[in-house]
Amino acid sequence: MIEGEIIKFYRKKAGLTQEQLGFGICTLSYISKIERGHTACSAEIIELLSERLHLDIKKEILRFENLGNQLNQWHKAIVMRRLKEVDEINIELKKIPYIKSSKYAALYQLLQARYYIIKMNYKKTYSILQSVQKEHPSLPPYERNLLRHAWGIYYICNCISSRTENHQKAIEVLKEIEKDEYGNPEYNYDLAVAYHCIDSRVMAYVHAEKALRYFRETNNSIMAITAESLMLLQIGNDIHLNLEELTESYHNLIHHSELVQATDKKGMLLNNLGFEHFRRKDYAHAHKFYKEALSMTNKHSTSYLQRLYNYLESGLAGKIMRKTSILRKAQEGLSMAKNLENEFYHLLFKLFILLTENNLNKYYTFLEKDALPYFITNKHTVFINKYAKELYDHYMESEDFQKAAQISKVLIDPN
Q1: Terminus-to-terminus CA distance in the chain, angstroms?
Q2: What are the C-alpha distances in Å from 354 to residues 188, 341, 347, 367, 398?
Q3: What is this structure's pTM?
Q4: Which CA distances in Å does 120 have to 73, 156, 167, 251, 263?
Q5: Distance CA 224, CA 145 (A)
């Protein structure tokens, strides 16, 4: 009974007991039944209770009945990445005073968690998800699976921003989603990203392809571009693939991102295209694409740190930039990583600076004592393999066979 939920909220807000609200109108037990929705009551009683609470009950009922539709629209806007609409609906929902005490409370909080993920406020996201688990131990099927989806995205974001949670947790929780109960195949994209993080190319491609079909069916152009770009990253691992054909595929996606005015997606695609050229040692083109991607990126973000590092690495590898310029920019990256409390990029920039300065003793010491242990703890597989191999070669060259034997265990089993 909608009236009961509304009356209960405004009674508590007014600081009245059930007895005080019902005095002269109806009994205490009758008020209790109304608020719990256990009885139907006359329009006259509802009107009298509403007057005592200074409440326009008809207006509130209409607003409550529309709440479910608003939440569904909010969820759709989040999935579609219609960011202006996402913000507008968020503002409207905050105006509904009883939303957190209604039957929609859990759904609202879970969508709030997804909202804060978009805003990159992961601390707030974590707090909301913990709160939902504590306050709603027995969620309905849809909300239960939405909770799993939100946790999965949260873990992925922490994987990318290199904090304590990791991609393995993301895969575990996303695989628990009951797809028939949830009915939202969007989660396949997040599962693909999680598999991509652990360099599981086949599984990443399979789930990205499922997500792409769903995004195309729902005319979600932004996410279709994102899913297809993830698929390109997987096939790009084959260095024997024709680079011209791969580049053409990227330029087609870049053109689509321009048509839908998705500047952030264009920047992502340019960065990925730079990566494809870099791993084929085409440093000149890699540097060009990284530079363009960097120019389109928010300077106060993890993405900027990533693209700045890529830009400088290609500049050094291809001898395109002056060493003094590279070091100055790398120091900027180091400071930014510190300000953003991003340990991952703080370590990468520190290693890069030492290598650029040709300070190899400090480089290998820092790699052994600080960087590699961090990568191992946080299960950054790609960087574990890269830097463990460097250390192994260094130990073999310096004839420190005991340390070489120890590091070889990491190469055999990075976990």
Answers
A1: 54
A2: 40, 20, 11, 10, 19
A3: 0.76
A4: 21, 12, 17, 28, 18
A5: 23
Give the start-end residues of each E strand in 216-302.
Answer: none
The span from the CA of 128 to the CA of 105, in Å, is 12
Alpha helices in 318-377, H assignment, sequence order:
323-339, 343-356, 360-366, 372-377
Which tokens belong to 182?
Answer: 């949830």
Report d(CA 184, CA 112) in Å as an integer: 17
- The tokens describing 80, both together, are 């579609």
pLDDT digits (tens, 9 = 90+) for 207-246: 999 999 999 999 999 999 999 999 999 998 777 788 899 9
Q: If residue 237 lies in a helix (H) or strand (E), which one and from where to where?
A: none
CA-to-CA distance for 216 and 231, rounded, in angstroms? 15
pLDDT one-digit tens code per residue, 339-348: 998 999 999 9
Q: How far apart are CA 135 and CA 131, in angstroms?
A: 6
Contact 379, 167 (CB under 8 A): yes
Among 82, 88, 15, 2, CA closest to 46 = 2
**Closest C-alpha among 46, 24, 23, 19 to residue 34:** 46
Structure-block tokens of residue 164: 């304590």
What separation in angstroms does the CA of 390 have from each of 236, 252, 377? 24, 37, 18
As to burial, measured by CB atoms within 10 angstroms (0-12 exposed, 13-18 middle, 19+ buried), residue 201 is middle
